[in-house]
Amino acid sequence: MSTLAQRRGLRLGLRLTAAVLLTLVFMFPIYWLFMISFKTASEIYAFPPRWYPSSFNFDTYHVLFRDGDAATVGNSLVVAFFSTALAMFLGFICAYSLARFSTGGKHLANWIVSQRMIPPIAVVFPIFLLYVWFGLVDTYIGVILLYTAFNLPYVIWMMRSYILDVPRALEESALVDGCTRWEVIWKVVLPMCRAGLAATAIFTFVFAWNDFIFALVLTRTEVATYTVQITHYFGGQSNFWAKISAMSVLGTVPIFVVTAFMQRYFVRGISLGAIKG
Amino acid sequence: MADLRVSALHKYYGSVHAVRGVDLEIPAGEFTVLVGPSGCGKSTLLRTIAGLEDADKGTIEIGGEVVNHLPPRSRDIAMVFQNYALYPYMNVFDNIAFGLRSRKTPKEEIEPKVRRAAQMLAIDHLLDRYPRELSGGQLQRVAIGRAIVRSARLYLFDEPLSNLDAQLRDEMRSEIKRLHQELGKTMIYVTHDQVEAMTMADRIVLLRDGIIEQAGPPLDLFERPASRYVAGFLGSPAMSFVDAKVVAAGDGLALRLGDGATLALPARRSANLGNWVEQPVVLGVRPEHLGRANPGERAGLARHSAIVELLQPTGSRTYATFSLGGTRAVAELQAHDVSAINEKIELSIDMNRVVLIDPATNRVIS
Amino acid sequence: MSSVQGASFGQRNFKYLLVGPAIFVLLLVGVFPLVYLLTVSFQGITMTETSTDFIGSANYKQLFDDARLWQALLHTLIITAIALPLELVLGLTMAQLFLDRLPGRAIFIALLVLPVVVSPIVSGATWALLFNHRFGPINQIIGWIAGKETILLWTINPDLVYPAIIAAEIWQWTPFMFLLLLAALGNVDRSQLEAAAIDGASWWRTFSRIVLPAIAPVMTVAILIRGLDLFRLFDIVWALTQGGPGTMTETISVFTYVKGFQQFETSYTAAVALLVIILLSALVMFLLRRVELAR
Q1: Nearest one of B360, B355, B358 to B234, comparing CA atoms
Q2: Among residues B186, B213, B189, B173, which one has the least CA distance to residue B45?
Q3: Fewer Cβ in 10 A, N or C end of chain C?
Q4: Which among C159, C2, C262 is positioned nearest to B57, based on CA atoms?
Q5: Sheet holding B31-35, edge to edge
Q6: Angle B291-B295-B299 (CA atoms, 0-180°, nearest 5)?
Q7: Cα C259 to Cα C286: distance, rounded to the nearest angstrom
Q8: Could you tell me which residues of chain B have a Cβ less than 8 Å from any Cβ in chain C?
Q9: Which string of DSSP letters, residue by residue, matches B171-224?
Q10: CA atoms of A260 and A255, how far apart (whole Å)
Q11: How far apart, in whole angstroms, are the C-alpha atoms of residue A167 and residue A170?
């Protein structure tokens, strides 16, 4: 065996080891979180800490479901789903107008991009005051509306990029063949943007699902999302760690599943987002 | 089928005046080719006729109906694009049927129509395939199929053969011409290739910088160009232009070239050039106006000695480059008239067919 | 003769109808808050005072005197200045590691993406768990290394809170940098690298002269995005320390939240919020201009 091949083999071995170690380090916190949720109270507070539960204990989960806390995950789902759908719909048609007609020129495009940069706390504060006035606090509509508004710039920006990549000739051909512009948007452009749509939609959904500060300010009891629910367990009570971790797991597993299925699109979404951004 | 009339059409792209007052009348059933170099406005004109662009001034009438404000789908036209514009996520059948479905054609009618169009273009065996599985030529046939399946009254072609290799282009040219004969529809075809224009058109419209330089049957433009531009655009190899002066010689007139050579003009032409004595003109010579001089030739042929600088044999003919009046010119000779460069050859120039141009206006002197 | 004569209202204004709804919703986030904040900041609303009379620029004067506010900005700056470069370097290293073929590469990447999709609040809570002084594994591991039982108060000890927050932040977002940079590295022209190899360039030379310039645009975008996010940091801090001990780890977002939703100093908070928006906008403008000029 030549030394070049040997060196290459060694390099590969080192890289593989590094990759494994790296992955273990990054996965460890997630493992710990999941693991805690299956421990009994005594196990959690054992000292020194045990790294694995003696058995899979679902007590905490039972409590969460019994008390109705687990329903907050359902709220997260409703809010994330509808705000994503709305943002994708409005954002897509707006992006089409920007891409094909350059509506509003540079000024509109720049203004939309600048909306991405607004710090959430600066937005949620006046919005909260407005919602109080309109009675929208702790309502689904209120939260969905704000998430939609906050996600629109991202959706518009990304979709505009993807739409620009669709050859104009396809649309023109359809126009000549008998489609109205509206039909062209949905029958021709949309299918061509499928990949971009998926990537953008996932990002938007994850953002809404994982948001905390907006939910913290704008929800109370009716619409509390799982992120807010977790903070209810901070401070004070004895088994709050168990509930924190169990609730976190309940809110995180769905996203893990979605990401696993859409892994391709998610990764592509991040990378393309940078290249097009 | 319908006729087309364009009146005083203007189109701006931002500050660029792409179409500058075009008047065009195309009788129904004709095959018209819009030809010109890049940027001459031919594609813009076509797209404006299609309704993909809005005209800024002027009217467009199809079949007597003003269509300026109508969207493309209401103009009853069909279009074939340079890049085929096929939907990658539909198979060939669905691609061709797309237009019919958009117009809510009943399902029973769609299948036979699509099949007939596919048969006409010899692609009926490809109906299940997807665009990514097809070759360039097949893709172009599908694009054409999509256009003809609808029986529109006007067909527009936007440089459809530009993306094909030379051999395929030849093949498709005859296909399209044959289609025109079979269907008899009004067709407008845009290309930058003057060979395509010459071979396919019933009528050529030569555009330059947004205006029509000349329009008419191909041979008209070829043999009786109106301007230097038209003369130089059509024909391959292109016409050569040599500076000359009209001088009196013997009983008639002749052209004196820059290097002193004199070419006698036939009587017929001399008669028309009375005002041009001692005036500068530009002589336009096509390769086919030149040939190897034979003893005892008829009148009208001027003789010229030349030294061959470059040879380009094509098999049946050989193109020889030489110097004429200080300018490079090309002669079309028989394959074995000349065999090596630096050879001397006697050429005869057909002074009946050469073109004379007024250098001040660049118009052809009739 | 007008060429659009006869076109319907819908036809002519189609493009505006498409952007209309989106803009309408965006106004909710984009224009309304600014106007509202501006108005309220000139009023005197506090927890006790509900009158909406205008009191001039008293709130803005207070901004400049408020030490806690500037501390919060400083805290935010410190966290950003430390976390961002670390994320960048670590992300770049990881990207380089995974650039070439590796068995199981897809699985590794799939797993490494997970921290990014976890909610920041969950991330904070998880690290609070890890950093727990008695029951968290981190102290346990340190104890193994140090040889004796270690009880470090990561979320309370002033010397340890910043490392704790930064650790959580880096854990969550380095994979994001990693993915971005992986894509960028993958797009570097292979033939340039091969030419450099033939020329005999060292690894460092190739990296600094060819690779870095090639990925610079993506890196800039990444830095911009992460920098902005770090400036707005709230969730992780809230979960770990709630801004404590005292106000030691209070970022500007935490500060604003406390002022507005715990102390109910509505008008003053409005002024603070406006200040934050202005600062952020100025920063972004400045950076974007630098990027534009660099191109």
Answers
A1: B355
A2: B189
A3: C
A4: C2
A5: B77-80, B154-158, B186-191, B31-35, B203-208, B211-216
A6: 75
A7: 29
A8: 54-59, 68-71
A9: HHHHHHHHHHHHH--EEEEEES-HHHHHHH-SEEEEEETTEEEEEE-HHHHHHS
A10: 8
A11: 6
First to last CA, chain C: 45
Task: Give residue for tokens 């620009």.
Answer: A164
What lies within 8 Å, CB to CB, of C142 at 6+ separation is C150, C152
What is the DSSP secondary structure assignment for residue B364, as one 8-state letter? B
**In this structure, is the dihedral angle defined by the CA atoms of residues C33, C36, C40 and C41, taken in order, positive or negative?**
positive
Q: Do A219 and A228 contact (CB within 8 A), yes or no?
A: yes
A82 CB-side CA count, 13 A: 12
Q: Is the peptide bond before C245 cis (omega within 30 degrees of 0)?
A: yes
Q: How far apart are CA C249 and CA C240, in angstroms?
A: 10
Q: Give the whole-angstrom CA distance, residue B197 versus residue C79.
A: 69
- CA B180 centroid distance within chain: 17
* Whole-structure pTM value: 0.81
What ipTM was reported for this prediction?
0.86
Sequence ranges of the domains in chain A: 3-62, 68-276
Which pLDDT tens digits describe chain B residue by residue (366 residues)? 789 999 999 999 888 999 999 999 999 999 999 999 988 999 999 999 999 988 999 999 999 999 998 888 889 999 999 888 888 888 999 999 988 888 888 889 999 999 999 998 999 999 999 999 999 889 999 999 999 998 899 999 999 998 888 888 988 999 999 999 999 999 999 999 999 999 999 999 999 999 999 999 999 999 999 999 999 999 989 999 999 999 888 878 888 888 888 888 888 888 888 888 888 999 999 999 998 888 877 777 888 888 899 999 988 899 999 998 888 999 999 888 877 888 888 888 998 899 999 999 999 987
Minimum distance, in Å, between the CA of residue C9 and any CA atom of chain B: 12
Please tell me the distance from the alpha carbon of residue A80 to that of residue A84, in angstroms, as a whole number.
6
Q: What chain A residue is nearest to B74 in terms of C-alpha separation?
A: A178
To the nearest whole Å, the CA of A167 is away from the closest chain B CA by 8
Tell me, what amino acid is at C104? G
Chain B residues close to C5, C-beta within 8 Å: 68-69
Cα C62 to the center of its chain, rounded Å: 27
The DSSP code for B327 is E
> C217: helix, coil or strand?
helix
A104 contacts A165 by C-beta, under 8 angstroms: no
CA distance to partner chain A, nearest, from residue C37 (Å): 6
Minimal-distance CA residue of chain A relative to B86: A170
d(CA B28, CA B153): 9
Euclidean distance between CA atoms B9 and B23, whole angstroms: 7
The residues, ordered by sequence, that sit 6+ positions from C263 with a Cβ below 8 Å of its Cβ are: C47
Q: What distance in Å separates the CA atoms of residue C274 and residue C63, rounded to the nearest whole number?
A: 11
Q: Do A216 and C119 contact (CB within 8 A), yes or no?
A: no
User: How far is it, in rounded angstroms, from Cα C278 to Cα C272?
Assistant: 10
Domain A68-276, CATH class in plain words? mainly alpha
Interatomic CA distance for residues A212 and C239, integer angstroms: 11
Q: Which residue of B72, B86, B156 is in closest CB contact with A175?
A: B72
Q: Domains (ranges, CATH) in chain B? A: 4-233 (3.40.50.300), 240-357 (2.40.50.140)
- Interface contact B73-A176, CB threshold 8 A: yes
**What is the CATH class of C66-264?**
mainly alpha
Phi, psi of B100 (to 5 degrees): -65, -40
Q: Are C223 and C181 in contact (CB under 8 A)?
A: no
**Closest residue, chain A, to B156 (C-alpha):** A176
